[in-house]
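User: quick one
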Amino acid sequence: MEKYIIWLLPIPPLISFFAIILFTNKRKAVSHGIAIGAAGLSWLGSMFIFIRALGVKEFGRQIFGSSINWLPTGSTWLKVGVQIDPLSAVVIFFVAWTVLAIFIYSVGYHNFGQPKGDHDVAGLPPHGATISEHGQTHSVPSIEPMYSRFFAFISLFAFGMYTLVVSDNLLTLFVGWEIMGLCSYLLIGFWFGKPSARNAAVKAFMTTRIGDVFMLLGIAFVYSFTGSLSFSEIFKPAMLTALSSTPAFFGLSAAGIIGLFLFIGTVGKSAQWPLHVWLPDAMEGPTPVSAMIHAATMVSAGVYMIIRMFPLISAGWTEGMPLNTTMSAIAFIGAFTALFAASIALAQNDIKRVLAYSTISQLGFMVAALGIGAYVAAAFHLVTHAFFKALLFLGSGSVIHGMEHGVLHTGEHTDAQDMFNMGGLRKKMPITFWTFLIGGLALSGFPVLTAGFWSKDEIFAEAFGKGHIVVFITLAVAAFLTAFYTMRQITLTFLGEPRTKAAEHASETTWTMTVPLIVLAIFAIGFGWVGIPAQFPFLGGHIANWFHEFVGGTLTELPQEVGFSWVPLITSLVVALGGLFCGWLVYRKIKSPQEDFLQIPVLKNKWYFDEIYDYVFIKPATWIAEKFTSLYMDQTVIDGVLHSVARFSLFLGVSFRTYIDKRVINEFMGDGTGNVVKTSGSGLRKIQAGRIQYYMVASITVLVIFALLFYFLVL
Amino acid sequence: MSVPLSWYLILAAALFSIGLFGVLSRKNAIAILLGVELMLNAVNINLVAFWRYLDPSQMGGQVFAVIVFAVAAAEVAVGLALIISVYRRRKTVVADEIDLMKW
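Assistant: Done. Structure below.
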């Protein structure tokens, strides 16, 4: 029963995609109805599976799954199939919720129910419509011109995500992964009329491509080594031992190399340093896309994949041993990204860009946690982060929407995404404010109440407990910065007084946008309580650490819960509360970017990574393309050869024409025959005098001649 | 009975040559026709002479001569009719001037 439903989980969004693209493209209400209906079906199925999974004792030992033979490979078969184990059960839980919430939110975000824009064109964001009421004209938001197309794309995206999560093998996982990459490209470039959106789409696609190629290499390596791509086959203890004891390249074992390659896939998809550059630019897409793809699901998929591959990465490593090379690399990249991205987020003024860097930073937390072997903590933070980051993104979309309303109302030309143009929105948009506050506090790790606290605290506890002090300190600093910039964002956006007219006239958004916010806010608080460590003071033990037991059961050996220590807890409290307090203290007075002491160029310009990549990769690539390939190779060498061949042929042709065709065929054969006939004709015509006597003379002469000849020769 | 065959042949040849000369040299269409008649009669003399001297028991030579007479009469009738017809249209019987079909 369960396994059939698992097979069916990704199907409704796929059907929705084709239905919208093929049939209902012109009918906006039907399109979003189909898309939300499909998301709802998948949600129902996911909840059913999740609840059934909860009911199974020691679920990690007896997971739901089934597989079929797909491709014959010699005498064996390449199998594909689906499975839900504890890890994918919690992932599908948050995927189902966030996807459904974001689908509903998109209805409001794309101004469903509003009139058509005055001069809106497909490929640009709607500019607003003028309507006249009671003899007065005023501007209102207008509906998105490509409304149906948007729902088709996000449906296809949901299909990709569900496929990825339910896969029991690397192949279909990779298929889902790439479908999401495509959708990410399509949706970042959704407003393709804007050059910035186009460039961002290309950048995202190219950057993640680097990771994907390595990931494909890793998958190929796995297949050539084990002859199978199913997780259950790869993660067999004997197979893992074989993989970890086989030396490959660079002094790494086969398992290490594969893990490293797969991890590079994660680096691309989850925007870790050094492939982080695409994610902030991806904010050019519509906000629901930013929330879904670039916060809750797709970038989480990268982390999910690497968590999924943890048995392989940690093959041969046991608790207490020093980290192997691959794990060290993962821990380093994760911790570094966490701090690095948090530092950039400090100086961003665009409300969505702050969240983008915050996403990179939080993904870094998870990656770092996985790198130090904190499997459960990484998964826990993955889930809580998906909820509160989706909440924050949707909240920021709601803010932007409210601001745009104010911009239309006042006719002022203000950047609706610049936080310095906001302020005082808490009174205008109360629901958005409270939900955003909850999301922000969860992101900062506000103690006890929020989900972010519990997951982040677990990462700290693990890092400290396992003795990775460098990682611990780095993450602690990053967490401090996180709390700081989150409070900066909340203060600038919601607190104080409105700094522009547009902010004064901002208004709360429709229920389709606020209801998803409320639902996600509930999870942003409540989901943390499923993972309270047993030894936590006062609270621990009252509710069992369900999450640890459940998700930890995915591994063959249940990971030990790390012992309680006051150091990480106090650190966690200090950085969260301290960061929040400092953020409020500093930014409650600051009214404009000029007063902001953190607008230093190096942070403002994101440590110049875009510029560095421009100089190191893009400029040389352009140079090679333009100068070497195009100008030298193509235009000189290849064109030269081609032109010589052409010139030689031309020469041959001209020669044939001049000497053979013109001379021999035309003049000698053609004209010659004609001329001979003509000349002889005009010569002979004189004989045809028309006088019977002449003919007679001629014939008698001939007769006489022949007679004489006959007489002398024959006789 | 001492006129040899050769005399007749010489007469016929002379007559033929006169007729041929007439045909070739005269411009008048009727004169040409006359020339043709002379040539035909030269042939007749030959036919009759050969019959008489070589094999008088056979009637072939005489029969041929009679046929030639008949044909010659028909030919003169057609020829004169043509000439009269041409004369009516062109007011001439000079062969050179009858050049309607000439290029």
